[in-house]
Amino acid sequence: MAREIVLDTETTGLNFGNGHRLVEIACIELDDLVPTGRSFHRYVDPERDIDTEAERVHGLSAAFLAGKPRFAAPEVADALLDFVAGDPLVAHNAGFDRGFVNGELERAGRATLETARWIDTLALAQKRFPGMYNSLDALCKRFKISLSEREKHGAMVDARLLAGVYLELKGGRERALDLRLATERPAAAGAVRKGYGPRPRPLAPRAGDLERARHAAFIREALEGDVVWSQFED
Asked: Which residues contact 107 (CB under 8 A, 6 or more apart)?
């Protein structure tokens, strides 16, 4: 099982080092690039105001977040660490999310998530599409991933979109295809290759009596010698 965690965050601003805080975090579990249905999602009280531009992007207000658990609460920090376990973390522009998540973990007195565990889909996209615009929105449009459910940025919505983008960047769809001829594929151990047998449910004839009579007349009148079709007549 190749378990990976797709992660996204929303924040009060752009830089944890300048006092900004995390307000939402979401994770989606992948198994061999396929979402398992398991996820983690929390809103967090940042204990501070939210920048106007940040609120415009994600739509989360201080009034909405008031009363939500703080990041240091066990249902956030400890539950997050339990969910991600020791598996790789996938994020778009991973340095941003890593800075906030590790900043919050350190502030809460918890172990941080090692840099080597993080997979940056922005870096993957820049390598595949050099010189192109590689935002999450741009990649969704390039890969024809629908943005219809997203009115504003949200950690869970963006994590789902990113999971689809990551699948495309890793060639996940192509991995499931085997376009080789059957004779070129390795047979399973103990398997015996069989020829084609009779069709279990024969197709119903589509030609009517008149059409078959006309065809028989054509064969008799237009063709000479042994006619192969005659061998199959009833």
From this structure: 71, 72
Q: Name the pTM for this structure.
A: 0.72
Q: What CATH number corresponds to the domain at position 154?
A: 3.30.420.10
Supply the pLDDT for residue 161.
95
Tell me the per-residue pLDDT of 91-104, one tens digit each, with 9 for 90 and over. Answer: 999 999 999 999 99
Strands 22-31, 3-11: pairing is: antiparallel
Say which of 20, 58, 92, 153 is annotated catalytic: 153
Active site residue 20: no
The kind and range of the H/E element at 183 are none
- Determine the structural domain holding residue 160 and report its residue range: 3-175
Q: Residue 84: exposed, middle, or buried by beta-carbon count in 10 A (0-12, 13-18, 19+)?
A: buried
Instruction: Tell me if 213 is assigned to some domain.
Output: no
pLDDT recorded at residue 187:
46
Q: Cβ-count burial of 115 within 10 angstroms (0-12 exposed, 13-18 middle, 19+ buried)?
A: exposed
